[in-house]
Design brief:
By secondary structure, the protein is of the alpha/beta class. It has a single domain (5-271), classed as Glycerol-3-phosphate (1)-acyltransferase. It has helices at 29-45, 82-89, 102-105, 109-118, 129-146, 170-179, 210-213, 228-256, and strands spanning 5-8, 14-17, 49-53, 71-75, 96-101, 121-124, 149-152, 182-189, 199-204, 208-209. Helix 5 crosses helix 6 and helix 6 (170-179) crosses helix 8 (228-256). The two termini are 31 Å apart.
């Protein structure tokens, strides 16, 4: 596919379409430097700390090293810090490729500079239609085939009460079905409100296949693309992921709530990069 192909929106601005940068499980020096900067600022300046649970659930190869080629589904997605918490606490390699909101990713000149240099993003633009969906699916397949990790935050719709996740979009299910790759749910807690010395929780749940989530036999053929059977399977997948993560989401929120009397300094961090 044609990576990072510019497409003009109604205002005449160029919008990268498909995967920005070449897909690779390797972490470039720029990616490593960016993660180091995230760590220095997040941990050193802001005092953020993350409790990581379930690190042993990450897929590994026969030698025990972290393996790629799977889908990281992060939830609930509350603020700008979520992808940084995930990237900072997962192995540097195989590297993450993020599927995210195009207008947010390319909102400013410095963001455009960083993401074009670092690569590894698949921007979503409003109003793309079936052609855009096909491009996203092709880009995701390419990423997973190289052994990288596709990371997305699959919730849709308006905000729900703290301790719960919003409904999940079908995109997560279609990525898993079309590529026949495993989904690893990654639950976040404490990211809804940011301040200095904030404590987060990141819990990695066991990897699960699209077939298992859709209640399909292991040796059964996957539903035909865009068929009614595929759409029904996609609905079963997102419902199953939502159900499996409901309790961990609630527990992560409760575990990161602070006792009364704690002084929350630098609360402006919550909306600093929105």
């Amino acid at each position: 596919m044609n990576r990072d192909r510019p497409v003009r929106d109604r205002a005449g601005r160029n919008r990268p379409s498909g995967l920005v940068g070449a897909p690779s499980p390797r972490a470039s020096w720029f990616y490593r430097v960016l993660l180091l900067g995230v760590r220095v600022v997040g941990r050193g300046l802001f005092g953020f700390r993350t409790e990581v649970l379930g690190a042993d659930q990450l897929p590994r190869d026969a030698s025990g090293r972290p393996a790629g080629g799977w889908i990281a589904a992060g939830l609930p997605h509350r603020t700008w810090v979520d992808p940084f918490v995930v990237a900072d606490n997962l192995p540097v390699e195989p590297r993450l490729v993020f599927f995210g909101d195009g207008p947010a990713i390319f909102r400013s000149a410095w963001r455009r500079f960083v993401f074009r240099r670092i690569g590894g993003v698949i921007p979503i633009w409003p109003g793309g239609g079936r052609a855009a969906v096909d491009a996203h699916l092709a880009a995701a397949s390419q990423v997973l085939a190289t052994g990288a990790v596709l990371c997305l935050f699959p919730e849709t719709g308006p905000a729900t009460p703290l301790g719960t996740a919003r409904p999940l979009g079908l995109g997560l299910a279609y990525f898993a079905l079309r590529t026949d790759r495993q989904i690893v749910p990654i639950v976040l807690g404490g990211t809804h409100e940011l301040y200095r010395r904030r404590r987060f929780r990141l819990q990695i749940l066991p990897a699960v296949s699209a077939r298992e989530l859709a209640d399909l036999p292991p040796d059964a053929p996957l539903p035909a693309p865009w068929s009614a059977a595929e759409r029904e399977a996609a609905h079963r997948i997102v419902a199953a992921v939502h159900a499996r993560t409901a309790r961990p989401v609630s527990e992560a929120h409760e575990a990161t709530e602070l006792p009364a009397g704690f002084t929350k300094r630098w609360r402006w961090l919550t909306t600093a990069w929105h």
